[in-house]
Specification:
2 domains; Defensin A-like; Rossmann fold; three-stranded antiparallel beta sheet
Length: 246
């Protein structure tokens, strides 16, 4: 797709959009007026509240429908396209066995104060996510899941002890950009602890990460929301088996 477009594909007139949000105010006509005011300030004009529902004491959820005249240019959008093939577990196992002649070791966990293990467990645990088995299912992978609230020194120590080929870190807590600070601390620690050629592959993921920030954060790959175990496994296997072959 090229050229400027409007919401809902309208290239000739103003586009219509639907927006949902919650305000810290009791449901009332005043609250609905406040929702319209907010929508107006965000560029929707006119704006119409099509749904409003109390969300506990002192909060109201709104759905607002309205017209915007902003243009978007897809040619300026920056995304990280997948540059490796998706492998089935059988294909991944075969590639590891052929190229490395040993099991590939993956160490993972949630660093800092982050106690949310849902993301790392979805990728590592055998039950997996989105209908795909986790990395524990792969016969040629040895997976060490350190769980939650792992300090960076503990992560580095575990990686060295297990002779990790790849380190996976999940971050959900994002207050004051904690996920970015923790990732930079982690990547700096691995650079200090390992010669460049021996450093394990560093992979981070979480719902608030920007996938274009891998170089800035000092890691090899950033995965955002919706990533499946197969995507992570395929990336690790592709990168490490190619490294072994070179």
């Amino acid at each position: 797709m090229t050229g400027l477009i409007r919401p809902y594909g309208d290239t000739t007139g103003d586009g219509m959009v639907q927006l949902s949000f919650t305000l810290p105010i009791e449901h009332s006509k005043v609250a609905e007026g406040a929702a319209v005011q907010l929508a107006n300030k965000m560029g929707m004009d006119p704006a119409l509240v099509v749904h409003a529902k109390p969300m506990g004491e002192g909060f109201t959820f709104f759905v607002v429908y309205g017209r915007v005249n902003h243009l978007v240019d897809p040619s300026t959008v920056e995304v990280v396209e997948r540059d490796y093939p998706l492998l089935t577990p059988k294909e991944a196992n075969a590639a590891i066995k052929r190229s490395m002649r040993r099991r590939l070791v993956v160490v993972g966990g949630c660093i800092g104060t982050d106690a949310h293990t849902v993301g790392i467990d979805a990728i590592l645990n055998i039950k997996g996510f989105a209908g795909e088995k986790g990395l524990e299912y792969y016969r040629e992978l040895k997976v060490v899941n350190l769980g939650a609230q792992v300090s960076v020194p503990q992560l580095v120590e575990a990686a060295r002890e297990e002779k990790a080929d790849a380190v996976l870190v999940s971050q959900v807590v994002t207050q004051r950009d904690a996920h970015l600070l923790n990732t930079r601390e982690m990547s700096a620690a691995f650079r200090e602890a390992y010669p460049a050629a021996k450093r394990p592959l560093l992979v981070v993921g979480g719902p608030r990460f920007d996938e274009t920030m891998a170089d800035e954060l000092g890691v090899d790959r950033v995965f955002s929301r919706g990533t499946t175990p197969g995507e992570v496994a395929s990336f690790i296997v592709h990168r490490l088996t190619n490294r072994s072959a070179s």
